[in-house]
Specification:
By secondary structure, the protein is of the alpha/beta class. Helices cover 40% and strands 18% of the residues.
């Protein structure tokens, strides 16, 4: 197989694991990344695991002339679009930054794809597009009503993609609504290393376990859940990466727009996850309850049946596997890629 796949944000956490999966499946990924919240060491890590590294081009996905040059120089058939800002908390404080970066750069990418007659794209969306008042678990038909600007940028891009498909039947669009990606490659060579202060629970937990943080702050224990803390659907990043391969294969056979949840269908509360990490690491993790965080919903769990039936995709890893692999990465890389 000689198909080139452009992977925007391919040096990031989910992007790097998906690039590795693409290479293992025989694709030729081209990584486009500006490294604002990722590291070139993730590419080195891919090389250690696979024995070879992908093509890497440093730059912004919103740079249409650069993207067009890539399309002109390589026979690109499809795009995996991971790049974008992803902090719910930061999006509440600076929404314009999120609309400019996430929606603006996506518009530029899609316009360039259209000009180059490339019509296949898989977009990294999020469970944050769902209405938190909807019944859990969320199906792909559950009402959408994001409660933070980050989620709203994801929904905006989904709507833009829907408009494209309506205007031109050549488009093949996969929208993957992620729940909560955690874990790392079992080798420990690639994993999650946010450059800014982490907003996701697992890296905060692991940094506390390794001693980089004194304690874990739990934002609220008065939610309408059994133990009062937020419930999330955690999914291993390797299962997520495989989901992209399954979606890409599906789009090779089907036109139109298709939406799939990627989650396990099992909810885990913050307190339950802390207990599981304590069990896996053998470290007593100090926690402190503080006030709720703006933009957080009480419960978000996937109904993954559509992905299972249409993509023949099934999550393989348990919450224990996720914690163990993430801890293995953190122990081998106590300061991240640095």
């Amino acid at each position: 197989m000689s198909d080139y796949v452009l992977v925007t944000g391919g040096a990031g956490y989910i992007g790097s694991h998906s690039v590795l999966a693409l290479m293992e499946a025989g694709y030729n990924p081209i990584v486009l990344d500006n490294f604002s919240n990722s590291s070139k060491e993730s590419i080195t890590g891919i090389g250690k695991i696979y024995g070879n590294t992908p093509i890497v081009i440093e730059g912004d996905v919103g740079n249409s002339s650069l993207v067009m040059d890539i399309f002109s120089n390589y026979d690109v058939n499809s795009v995996l679009h991971f790049s974008g800002l992803k902090s719910v908390e930061e999006s509440m404080a600076d929404p314009l930054k999120y609309y400019i970066e996430n929606v603006g750069s996506s518009l530029s990418l899609l316009r360039t794809m259209q000009a180059a007659s490339i019509h296949t794209i898989i977009f990294s969306s999020s469970a944050t597009v769902y209405d938190p008042e909807s019944q859990v678990p969320y199906t792909e038909n559950s009402p959408t009503n994001p409660i933070n600007p980050y989620g709203h940028t994801k929904l905006c891009i989904e709507q833009i993609l829907q408009g494209l498909v309506s205007s031109n039947p050549k488009w093949r669009v996969g929208i993957l609504r992620y729940f909560n990606p955690v874990g790392a490659h079992p080798s420990g060579h690639i994993g999650e290393d946010p450059k800014q202060t982490p907003n996701n629970l697992m890296p905060l937990l692991m940094q506390t376990a390794i001693g980089r943080k004194e304690k874990l702050l739990i934002f609220g224990d008065d939610y309408d859940t059994p133990d009062g803390t937020c419930i999330r659907d955690y999914i291993h990043v390797l299962d997520l990466a495989r989901g992209h391969l399954s979606a890409l294969s599906y789009l090779e056979r089907h036109q139109g727009l298709h939406i799939w949840n990627l989650g396990t269908g099992t909810g885990t509360s913050i307190k339950e996850l802390v207990d599981k990490v304590r069990e896996v690491t053998g470290v007593e993790i100090k926690t402190e309850i503080t006030s709720r965080r703006l933009g957080d919903s009480s419960k978000a769990v996937a109904d993954p049946e559509k992905a299972k039936s249409e993509l023949s995709w099934h999550p393989e890893y348990s919450i224990g596997n996720m914690c163990a692999d993430h801890w293995n990465w953190q122990r081998q890389n106590p300061d991240g890629y640095q």
